[in-house]
Specification:
Beta-Lactamase; alpha+beta; 5 strands; 5 helices
């Protein structure tokens, strides 16, 4: 890979909202993208100083589900799996996330399970706020799809 491409990739990973982890077959973190500090408040180099298991950051109520998801990834090398669960950030707050995982343990360039984490907490909170506003309205909300240039007064 050319140096400029590598620098561009590094800048992309460091400034993205999505997190990237690489785990071994036991779920030990072998790599965490630098933006872990901004998104979850954790030291992205912590895995280099001590053994950290990815499952230890999962909300206790979602732990069994996350264990099953890791087992599923181990059983299906090369396949991408998607699931949703809750994580705990460094401040103890619950974060709702969407996770994509791919078992690349057999790929000599990776030798790990690649995990992409997208924090959906703010989106979920916004949905809940919108739902409560709609439920509080005194009446019924209607939706209509209009074609470009169609007069709303004559919408079906």
């Amino acid at each position: 890979m050319a140096k400029s491409t590598l620098v561009g990739f590094q800048a992309l990973v460091e400034n993205a909202r999505d997190l990237v982890y690489v785990l071994d077959a036991e779920g030990v973190i072998r790599y965490a993208s630098p933006n872990v500090r901004q998104v979850l408040g954790y030291d992205p180099e912590g895995y280099a100083r001590e053994t950290l298991y990815a499952l230890d950051f999962v909300h206790p109520e979602d732990r069994a589900y996350a264990e099953a998801a890791l087992e599923d990834l181990l059983r299906h090398p090369g396949k991408t799996r998607e699931f949703r669960l809750r994580l705990l950030d460094a401040w103890g707050r619950v974060r709702k996330v969407r996770v994509w995982g791919r078992n690349l343990l057999e790929d000599p360039a990776v030798r790990g399970i690649v995990i992409n984490v997208h924090d959906e907490t703010e989106l979920e909170e916004e949905r809940a706020r919108l739902k409560s506003v709609l439920e509080a309205l005194p009446g019924v909300v209607y939706q209509a799809r209009l074609e470009e240039g169609q007069d709303p007064a004559y919408a079906p």
